[in-house]
Amino acid sequence: MQKTNIVILGAGYGGLITNKKIEKLLQAGEANITLINKHDYHYITTQLHKVGVGTACDRKIALSIPELIDSNKTKFVVGSVSNVDAQQQTVLLESGDEIPYDYLVISLGFEVATFGIPGIKEYAFELRSFRSSKAIHHQIIKQLSLYKEDGDPSRLTFAVAGGGFTGIEMLGELAEGLPKLCNEYGVPFDKVKIVGIEAADSLIPFFGEELISYTSKVMEKHRIEIFTSTKILSCTEDAIQLEGDMVLPCRTLIWSCGVKANSVLEKFGIPLVRGKVPVEKDLRVKGLENVFCIGDCALFMKDDQNALPPTAQVAMQQAEVCGENIVALMRHTNVKAFEYHHKGSVASIGDRTAVGKVGSFTMSGWFAAIMKRVIENRYLFVLGGPSLVLKQTLFLNREPI
Ligand code: FAD
Ligand code: NAD
């Protein structure tokens, strides 16, 4: 009898955890499992702001995928997915290779949303992947070096667009990491300007008065200039145009104004809603019996109006059920409906402080920062057990950056 082909697209939070779950439930040889990802490493998206500022060593954020999978059970393919043919049940790669599937998991993640604002795609920097975040680090170093040659103050203005979680994490990291970089490159830190720009009337507008006020105070303490109720209208290589006829001379704009699903989905011939793949309660794509979609690519409605947000927490919980459901279909048993259990959210503002909410309990300061580390370590534990947690936290912490 021919073995069942299970193909997983994307080795991010959703794809890797689905793979882990299936590896756990199936014996070696029970199915062909193929995991496909653009690169041979998995990046810890939740730490990309550290890559941007250069405050974490690369090996801490980019983990080798072959080391995270069981090669007796899973075949790992480095490749870029260019299309899916649901009729023929094949995945097409940019290399021209075609990979057949019996069960497919689409977990290709997110792209940064730029809303067609002029200049953003061309000149702004993104916290999207390991590489795009590395580009931020190179830009910072380049501007510090060039400032010493021409003294142009726009080189020392570092702006972050969007005061959601990504924005405040980036601002906090800049405030903590830039003094050290300035020192290394012989640039006086007091000449540096860190600016946060948010369209709504406060940072983290969805988080409640107490945490908003705490976050604002931390920003003030770090001398971060915050513009609220201010939309970015466009940007060029050396300036940002703001609402109210304001122009901010600046050569480094980090764009963190929200995300959308991977645009490769548009080619798959699956009808999209809000740019995402609508899924049933069991995480199967509407109208397709053997295709699952999870994480930032999936539109999972928690009620008539509201979809689940694009978070790692959602992707990981969905992955567990997706893995179980694929095995259930193989074994002709019942599939499960996915139920999301929100465990809370914590956002760091640098290494030593954070803000968070678990149920109605709000937290801030060092306690929240510790909680953030606990959450990160829990993910490492799920991914690679205690040895990965030890390696990442104890040994790699000692490596020079
Ligand atoms: P991803 O994790 O993005 O994985 C997608 C994978 O697919 C990637 O490996 C990518 O390389 C690969 N891929 C993409 N296109 C192709 C292609 N064409 N071919 C092959 N492979 C491809 N959420 C939280 O819950 N907590 C946090 O603290 C948190 N922090 C965040 C910080 C930042 C800066 C950002 C941007 C997001 C953060 N999020 C956080 C959100 C979280 O990262 C995402 O919701 C999560 O990564 C979604 O998981 P996913 O599996 O859908 O996609
Ligand atoms: P977001 O959508 O949460 O926030 C984007 C912010 O940008 C909004 O506050 C919006 O008002 C602002 N904005 C939009 N257009 C603008 C413009 N033209 N000018 C100025 N401001 C503008 O996006 P995000 O922060 O990138 O987060 C994306 C997802 O990742 C979310 O689901 C978030 O929860 C998740 N995330 C979680 C964490 C965490 O849990 N620690 C960290 C980062 C991201």
Automatic annotation (TrEMBL):
Flavoprotein in keyword set:
yes
GO BP annotations of the record are: aerobic electron transport chain
Specify the superkingdom: Bacteria
Which parts of the chain are coiled coil? none
Q: Name the UniProt key words of this record, in alphabetical order.
A: FAD, Flavoprotein, Oxidoreductase
Question: One GO MF term, please?
Answer: NAD(P)H dehydrogenase (quinone) activity
Q: Where is the FAD/NAD(P)-binding domain?
A: 5-319
Look up the record and name the cofactor or cofactors this protein needs. FAD
Query: To which protein family does this belong?
Result: Belongs to the NADH dehydrogenase family.
Q: What is this protein called?
A: NAD(P)/FAD-dependent oxidoreductase
